[in-house]
Amino acid sequence: MKEIELEDPYTIPYKGIYVVCDKNNEYAEIIEHTNCYGGAAWSKFHYSHSPLILNTRSIGNMIRYLVRTGSSTLDLKPSRSAAGIESVIVSGDEIHISYSGLGGGGVGATKCRALAEGVLRYECTESGGGRAAKGTIVVPRRERVLIGIDDTDTKETGATWTLTHNIAKELDCPESVYLSHTLVQLYPVEARTQNCVSTVLEFGCTGDLAKRELLENTKAALKKYSASDQTGMVVLSDFDPKEVYEYSKQCRSGELTKDYAMQYASEHGVDVWMDGNGVIGALASLAWFARPDESIRLEAEIE
């Protein structure tokens, strides 16, 4: 018989909590990386009733909340809307998120989140039992950086999705957090390696210096490890990549030229960091960040 010793039996700290904002600080996406998906799924359901929440999605063990910034009043009710997000306030380089909840929902809303990686500091009330609880966490303000990559492999060597993930994992740090990795199915053109799939990496960066270092290191790693001389790497720093939706649709339904891809990137604010033929697929991948279950189907449409 094994005797279990639990240091804190009623707390499961989240792995990490990160927030990316749009340029005007009107919208934010709260990305919670959980250690217990069951508890996070419960939160996802109940938080969806919060007035500030526009959309919720789960990807693996991450829950993503698209929110309007500001404050709201929650009407907490057991079993139906027992916890929620009261406010998301941007203050300079920091974001203050206030949660509240009843009973076990109060535990998750306060201490479990307060102890997550990425949290700078926190305040919370007592929680658990029949109590209502409130807590506020403070996290760095981040901006979304999308890196589209294609054509790092040959018919004999490698796979772009594996190389890009391994690079991103190595570059993951508090200033540039690695948030998601998505494979994007492209139209199977003749000049493909095998499956005609590109990759988009999503990072949350705390500032221009962190972003520059991330991109320079990514490019250097691609040059070092790519098995192809036609690697494409493109970058878009934007909360919503809607500017490339139309291009992605075209690239997933027919064959495009490199000249067209370069022109489209230039006209729609996308920076080209490596300009091999892979830029065609790399540009198309940007629209599908954090949509790995949809992006692998050619017939899927971006909503």
Automatic annotation (TrEMBL):
<dbReference type="Pfam" id="PF22641">
    <property type="entry name" value="TiaS_TCKD"/>
</dbReference>
<feature type="domain" description="TiaS-like TCKD">
    <location>
        <begin position="147"/>
        <end position="272"/>
    </location>
</feature>
<dbReference type="InterPro" id="IPR017674">
    <property type="entry name" value="Methan_mark_11"/>
</dbReference>
<protein>
    <submittedName>
        <fullName>DUF1743 domain-containing protein</fullName>
    </submittedName>
</protein>
<dbReference type="InterPro" id="IPR053870">
    <property type="entry name" value="TiaS-like_TCKD"/>
</dbReference>
